[in-house]
Amino acid sequence: MQRFVQRFEGLVYGLSLRMLRRREDAEDVAQDVFLRTFRSLKRWDADRPLAPWLIAITANRCRTALDRRSRTATFAPVAEQASEAIASPAELAEELQLALSQLRPEYRRCFELFYRKELCVAAVAEHLGVPQGTIKTWLYRARKELADHLERRGVTPDVKS
Known about the structure:
Radius of gyration: 20 Å
Helix content: over 70%
CATH topology of the largest domain: Arc Repressor Mutant, subunit A
Oligomer: single chain
Protein backbone atom coordinates (compact mmCIF):
# COMPACT_ATOMS: atom_id res chain seq x y z
CA MET A 1 0.00 0.00 0.00
CA GLN A 2 2.80 2.40 0.84
CA ARG A 3 4.39 1.94 -2.60
CA PHE A 4 1.00 2.46 -4.21
CA VAL A 5 0.54 5.77 -2.39
CA GLN A 6 4.10 6.87 -3.16
CA ARG A 7 3.62 6.07 -6.83
CA PHE A 8 0.39 8.04 -7.24
CA GLU A 9 0.47 10.70 -4.52
CA GLY A 10 1.95 13.34 -6.84
CA LEU A 11 -0.77 12.77 -9.41
CA VAL A 12 -3.62 12.78 -6.88
CA TYR A 13 -2.34 15.64 -4.73
CA GLY A 14 -1.34 17.75 -7.75
CA LEU A 15 -4.78 17.49 -9.34
CA SER A 16 -6.45 18.17 -5.99
CA LEU A 17 -4.35 21.26 -5.41
CA ARG A 18 -5.02 22.61 -8.93
CA MET A 19 -8.76 22.13 -8.53
CA LEU A 20 -9.15 23.25 -4.92
CA ARG A 21 -6.37 25.87 -4.68
CA ARG A 22 -6.02 25.23 -0.95
CA ARG A 23 -3.26 23.00 0.41
CA GLU A 24 -5.28 21.75 3.38
CA ASP A 25 -8.29 20.85 1.24
CA ALA A 26 -6.06 19.12 -1.32
CA GLU A 27 -4.44 17.04 1.42
CA ASP A 28 -7.84 16.02 2.79
CA VAL A 29 -9.14 15.06 -0.64
CA ALA A 30 -5.97 13.12 -1.49
CA GLN A 31 -6.29 11.13 1.71
CA ASP A 32 -9.97 10.47 0.97
CA VAL A 33 -9.12 9.37 -2.58
CA PHE A 34 -6.63 6.79 -1.36
CA LEU A 35 -9.06 5.47 1.25
CA ARG A 36 -11.80 5.14 -1.35
CA THR A 37 -9.38 3.56 -3.80
CA PHE A 38 -8.26 0.91 -1.31
CA ARG A 39 -11.87 0.11 -0.45
CA SER A 40 -12.82 -0.20 -4.13
CA LEU A 41 -9.70 -1.89 -5.45
CA LYS A 42 -11.52 -5.24 -5.69
CA ARG A 43 -13.94 -3.72 -8.22
CA TRP A 44 -11.23 -2.18 -10.40
CA ASP A 45 -10.86 -3.86 -13.79
CA ALA A 46 -7.20 -4.92 -13.99
CA ASP A 47 -7.35 -4.72 -17.79
CA ARG A 48 -7.77 -0.94 -17.59
CA PRO A 49 -5.07 1.58 -16.67
CA LEU A 50 -5.05 2.63 -13.04
CA ALA A 51 -4.10 6.31 -13.42
CA PRO A 52 -7.26 7.42 -15.30
CA TRP A 53 -9.40 5.69 -12.68
CA LEU A 54 -7.56 7.53 -9.89
CA ILE A 55 -7.89 10.82 -11.79
CA ALA A 56 -11.64 10.31 -12.12
CA ILE A 57 -12.01 9.54 -8.41
CA THR A 58 -9.87 12.56 -7.52
CA ALA A 59 -11.79 14.93 -9.79
CA ASN A 60 -15.11 13.72 -8.39
CA ARG A 61 -13.95 14.15 -4.79
CA CYS A 62 -12.65 17.65 -5.62
CA ARG A 63 -15.99 18.61 -7.19
CA THR A 64 -17.76 17.37 -4.08
CA ALA A 65 -15.39 19.39 -1.88
CA LEU A 66 -15.94 22.51 -4.01
CA ASP A 67 -19.69 22.04 -3.89
CA ARG A 68 -19.57 21.60 -0.11
CA ARG A 69 -17.35 24.67 0.18
CA SER A 70 -19.77 26.80 -1.87
CA ARG A 71 -22.72 25.68 0.27
CA THR A 72 -20.97 26.60 3.51
CA ALA A 73 -19.61 29.92 2.27
CA THR A 74 -20.85 32.93 4.16
CA PHE A 75 -22.99 35.31 2.22
CA ALA A 76 -22.56 39.06 2.13
CA PRO A 77 -24.86 41.04 4.43
CA VAL A 78 -28.02 42.40 2.81
CA ALA A 79 -26.77 46.00 3.03
CA GLU A 80 -23.60 45.04 1.16
CA GLN A 81 -25.61 43.22 -1.51
CA ALA A 82 -27.80 46.27 -2.01
CA SER A 83 -24.76 48.40 -2.80
CA GLU A 84 -23.70 46.18 -5.71
CA ALA A 85 -23.55 47.88 -9.07
CA ILE A 86 -26.67 47.58 -11.16
CA ALA A 87 -25.62 46.76 -14.69
CA SER A 88 -27.11 48.25 -17.80
CA PRO A 89 -27.99 45.75 -20.53
CA ALA A 90 -24.78 46.62 -22.39
CA GLU A 91 -22.63 46.16 -19.27
CA LEU A 92 -24.36 42.89 -18.45
CA ALA A 93 -23.85 41.61 -22.01
CA GLU A 94 -20.16 42.51 -21.82
CA GLU A 95 -19.75 40.76 -18.45
CA LEU A 96 -21.63 37.69 -19.70
CA GLN A 97 -19.42 37.52 -22.78
CA LEU A 98 -16.33 37.72 -20.58
CA ALA A 99 -17.68 35.00 -18.29
CA LEU A 100 -18.60 32.79 -21.27
CA SER A 101 -15.08 33.09 -22.64
CA GLN A 102 -13.75 31.71 -19.36
CA LEU A 103 -15.96 28.59 -19.35
CA ARG A 104 -14.57 25.20 -20.28
CA PRO A 105 -15.04 24.75 -24.05
CA GLU A 106 -17.63 21.97 -23.70
CA TYR A 107 -19.69 24.02 -21.21
CA ARG A 108 -19.54 27.09 -23.47
CA ARG A 109 -20.56 25.15 -26.60
CA CYS A 110 -23.38 23.43 -24.75
CA PHE A 111 -24.59 26.74 -23.27
CA GLU A 112 -24.51 28.47 -26.65
CA LEU A 113 -26.41 25.69 -28.41
CA PHE A 114 -29.07 25.57 -25.70
CA TYR A 115 -29.56 29.30 -25.08
CA ARG A 116 -28.45 31.06 -28.25
CA LYS A 117 -29.50 28.48 -30.84
CA GLU A 118 -32.45 27.46 -28.63
CA LEU A 119 -31.92 23.74 -29.17
CA CYS A 120 -33.53 21.30 -26.74
CA VAL A 121 -31.39 19.12 -24.48
CA ALA A 122 -31.85 16.10 -26.77
CA ALA A 123 -30.72 18.09 -29.83
CA VAL A 124 -27.68 19.49 -28.00
CA ALA A 125 -26.78 15.98 -26.84
CA GLU A 126 -27.05 14.62 -30.37
CA HIS A 127 -25.07 17.55 -31.80
CA LEU A 128 -22.25 17.13 -29.27
CA GLY A 129 -22.40 13.34 -29.22
CA VAL A 130 -22.83 13.00 -25.45
CA PRO A 131 -25.68 11.71 -23.25
CA GLN A 132 -28.54 14.03 -22.29
CA GLY A 133 -27.60 13.72 -18.61
CA THR A 134 -24.16 15.12 -19.43
CA ILE A 135 -25.77 18.08 -21.22
CA LYS A 136 -27.95 18.81 -18.19
CA THR A 137 -24.89 18.67 -15.93
CA TRP A 138 -22.88 20.93 -18.24
CA LEU A 139 -25.74 23.45 -18.42
CA TYR A 140 -26.05 23.48 -14.63
CA ARG A 141 -22.32 23.98 -14.19
CA ALA A 142 -22.16 26.66 -16.90
CA ARG A 143 -25.02 28.62 -15.29
CA LYS A 144 -23.41 28.30 -11.87
CA GLU A 145 -20.00 29.46 -13.13
CA LEU A 146 -21.61 32.39 -14.95
CA ALA A 147 -23.58 33.41 -11.85
CA ASP A 148 -20.46 33.09 -9.69
CA HIS A 149 -18.50 35.24 -12.14
CA LEU A 150 -21.17 37.97 -12.10
CA GLU A 151 -21.37 37.83 -8.32
CA ARG A 152 -17.59 38.13 -7.95
CA ARG A 153 -17.62 41.11 -10.31
CA GLY A 154 -20.46 42.73 -8.33
CA VAL A 155 -22.81 42.80 -11.29
CA THR A 156 -26.54 42.47 -10.88
CA PRO A 157 -28.92 42.81 -13.80
CA ASP A 158 -31.15 45.87 -13.97
CA VAL A 159 -34.45 43.97 -14.06
CA LYS A 160 -37.58 46.02 -14.71
CA SER A 161 -40.71 44.77 -12.93
